[in-house]
């Protein structure tokens, strides 16, 4: 089967959200096997491993961006074509929604037994520990800056988009482990403020799924939702500009 880079991005982001949201659901919902496990260390490691899996299975097809901020940062640094960015972002958003929905179905009995709506929303999307939009935005900017700058230093010209004659930079299969480690350390070191979305698709897609599922007292918190979109985009732009400056 000829898998296009866009389908690969969709599949990779699906895996990312299925596994990443899955660990949060596992430690947050009632009556799960991991309900009483120490959550933050487990969550940080699990998101890192989720990125490792997603990068490994898609790297040789799409370059494993899996994140609009990564696509934007690569494009700004001249490592990826701007013409491909919108389709990549759409694929990433759809993949995030699909992975979130599959995770919801996998844990649906536990969702039905859980009544803390803040915790339930937290399995889908991020939220601030202290609601201060200025500081929350900065936390997302700096976390995404670290991620995208590291990706720019790792990425190599490993994919070619057929028919467009575009040689693009992306992550290879050997890059899956270091990128997974970067995600883990961001979670441990910088994630306590906002839950480290550092990926607009990862937050907006599942937040949209949460707003659509049948629950009586849903709290999607759309007033906060712009933070994990704008923050990562700004962080990616700063990382791309700094990379151009020092290279």
Please provide a written account of the structure.
The protein is built from ten helices and two strands; from the N terminus they run H-H-H-H-H-H-H-E-E-H-H-H. With 247 residues, the protein is mainly alpha-helical. The chain has one domain: Glycerol uptake facilitator protein (Up-down Bundle). Helix 3 crosses helix 7, helix 3 packs parallel to helix 10 and helix 7 crosses helix 10. The model has no long low-confidence stretch (mean pLDDT 90).
CATH class group: Mainly Alpha
Instruction: Tell me the name of the CATH homologous superfamily.
Output: Glycerol uptake facilitator protein
Topology pattern, helix = H, strand = E: HHHHHHHEEHHH
Share in β-strands: under 5%
Inertia-based shape: globular
Report the C-alpha radius of gyration, rounded: 17 Å
User: How many DSSP H or I helices?
Assistant: 10
Arrangement of strands in the largest sheet: 1-2
Return the structural class: mainly alpha
Mean pLDDT: 90
The name CATH uses for the topology is Glycerol uptake facilitator protein
Estimated helix fraction: 55-70%
Residue stretches low in confidence (pLDDT < 50, at least 5 long) are: none
CATH architecture field: Up-down Bundle
Largest sheet: 2 strands, antiparallel
From the N-terminal CA to the C-terminal CA, the straight-line distance is 39 Å
Number of strands: 2
